[in-house]
Amino acid sequence: MLKEPATKYRPFPPVSLPDRQWPNRVLTAPPTWCSVDLRDGNQALAVPMNVSQKLEMFEALVRCGFKQIEVGFPAASNTEFSFTRRLIEDGRIPDDVTIQVLVQAREDLIDRTFDSLVGAKRAIVHLYNSTSPAQRRIVFGLGKPEILAIAARGTRWVKDRVGRLPGTDLGFQYSPESFSATEVDFALEVCEAVADVWQPTPERPIIFNLPDTVEVAMPNVYADQIEWFIRHLRRRDCAVISLHTHNDRGTGTAATELGMLAGADRVEGTLFGNGERTGNLDIVSVALNLYMNGIDPGLDLGNLGRLVDVYERCTGMTVPPRQPYAGELVFTAFSGSHQDAIRKGLKAWETQSEGASDAIWDIPYLAIDPRDIGREYSEVIRVNSQSGKGGVAYLLESEFGIELPKDMQREFGPIANDAVDRLGREVSAAELRSMFWREYIDLTGPWQLTGFRTSGDGGVVRCTSALLREGVAVELRGVGNGPIAAFVNALTSDGAPKFEVAQYSEHSLGAGEGASAIAYIQIRFADGRTRWGAGVDTNIELASIKAVLGALNRALALP
Predict the structure, then answer these.
(1) Buried b (16+ CB within 10 A) or exposed e, 156-170
(2) Fewer CB within 10 A of the terminal residue: the chain, N end or C end?
């Protein structure tokens, strides 16, 4: 890298707009969405989609609720032309969906484009030519008047051919390509010349698509460009202002949202940001950003997993695990403190939302309810070596109904984390359950229960216990005010270290007559040491007795 980058690069000049209004505005409604997955996204693929893949993608976009879909560049190749014809001739386009086709300002290409649209009910012809200084100087070797003439002449060619599609509700869109790198006054001049030819009306407006073709400045500069353009446009009521951002600086979403604040009506983009270089705008991100602020985005993203599957199958691309909203890990917490906060937040939400239709989502670390987009809470907390007791407890409870007491969480959490650390990877809920069973349930020495019965009267309980002590059968008897107390008395009277039950809880692990119960017991010795134990049985009394033995066995094994 250069030590003095200013010798090679220069900052993009800001727009003079001292009274800009967009910073004080708030978004309250969604834009009109236009998917360009089948054109801009498709041209960025190493292996472009074939016709069957494009058909599947088109159907997925329709299911999402897109009402405008750019289906291709019909004059560019036979595949593009055939796909457009297939959509029309097979009647695959819903009556409320408008297809859009792209074309350069060349007469032969415009003719071919109109041929592709014969029979379409609703269509938009999208004309473009490049306008930036670098394009004018390097690519075309033309001055501003010649660039303006290309745009106006192309518009005339399109207008002259409208009569060739008598049954089509035809709209027109013009893009000054590289708008963000073009002088705003010249971009406006070109668009005004196009409008003079097209003669839009408020009832049939022209679409001016103002692309951030290559991000050359911060997103606030793009917003200034959009607001400046809108404020100086002569016939604002006859135009739809559209955005088309790319992501070269990683701020495509920010540029779009600020451009919407600046007054844009429409947004073009792709699912998950597929596009040239670092990609196009990710429409899913902007739509769900609106949703999480209480605005209906006008798109149905309630089954995001299905959409990801279609996208990956058709494009050969993959959705990164940290892609906003859609990535595998975006609703996943590994950090122990995050896991604890999420677990507590979800419990509070269950209480707050029960029977309430106006409960407001406010959960730490979860900006949106994963269930709203087809995700599961089981994806939210996962366990690796960075996790804490909260994540461990959440997975055991959510997957298996094991509700560890808080103090037991503090004991088992580090035990589980040490085991995970040795493995050096993420572990599943089933693996955590196995760890818990090995640590607390599947203990067979030195004490093992083989039989237990009680009797009593007058508040006194007597127990007889059949056990193996280091493999030798013994029978112990004890008394107490309950089965657990009687069993503790039997053990300590036979030489076990003196201890008492400090904490006890139990719950069912299922429903029905055959459901098991799990008991958790913490014992405390005379020197203050404590150990937890757990026991499982269809009989809750036996589960409790097993839990006492489990705690004692752990204490004797881990002094």
Answers:
(1) ebbeebeeebeebeb
(2) N
Bridge partners of residue 241, in order along the sequence: 208
CA distances from 109 to 142, 262, 284, 518 (A): 21, 34, 32, 74
CB contact set of 224 (below 8 Å; sequence gap of 6+): 14, 15, 17, 20, 22, 262
* pLDDT per residue rounded down to tens, the chain (559 residues): 999 999 999 999 999 999 999 999 999 999 999 999 999 999 999 999 999 999 999 999 999 999 999 999 999 999 899 999 999 999 999 999 999 999 999 999 999 999 999 999 999 999 999 999 999 999 999 999 999 999 999 999 999 999 999 999 999 999 999 999 999 999 999 999 999 999 999 999 999 999 999 999 999 999 999 999 999 999 999 999 999 999 999 999 999 999 999 999 999 999 999 999 999 999 999 999 999 999 999 999 999 999 999 999 999 999 999 999 999 888 887 777 887 888 889 889 988 888 777 889 999 999 999 999 998 766 566 676 566 667 788 788 888 999 999 899 989 988 888 888 888 887 888 999 999 999 999 888 899 999 999 998 888 999 999 999 988 999 999 999 999 999 999 999 988 899 999 999 999 987 666 689 999 999 999 999 999 999 999 999 999 999 999 999 999 887 5
Global pTM reads 0.77
Q: What is the DSSP letter of 240?
A: E
Nearest to residue 519, comparing CAs of 397, 347, 389, 403?
A: 403
The kind and range of the H/E element at 212 are strand 206-212
CB atoms within 10 A of CB 401: 15
Q: What is the CATH number of domain 30-315?
A: 3.20.20.70
Q: Does domain 447-557 have CATH number 3.30.160.270?
A: yes
What class has domain 336-441?
mainly alpha
Distances (CA, A) of 468 to 193, 389, 475, 476: 97, 34, 9, 11
Q: How far apart are CA 500 and CA 485, in angstroms?
A: 8
3-state SS, one letter per residue, for 487-507: HHHHHHHCCCCCEEEEEEEEE
* Sequence ranges of the domains in the chain: 30-315, 336-441, 447-557
Q: Which residues pair with 268 in a beta bridge?
A: 34, 244
Q: Tokens 């029978």 appear where?
A: 475
CA dihedral 138, 139, 144, 150 (to 10 degrees): 170
Q: What are phi and psi of 34, to 5 degrees?
A: -130, 115
Q: Is 490 left (phi over 0), alpha (psi -120 to 50) or beta?
A: alpha
Of 280, 271, 276, 210, give the one whose Cα is nearest residue 239. Answer: 210
In 10 A of CB 322, how many CB atoms? 11
Cβ of 316: how many Cβ atoms within 10 Å? 13
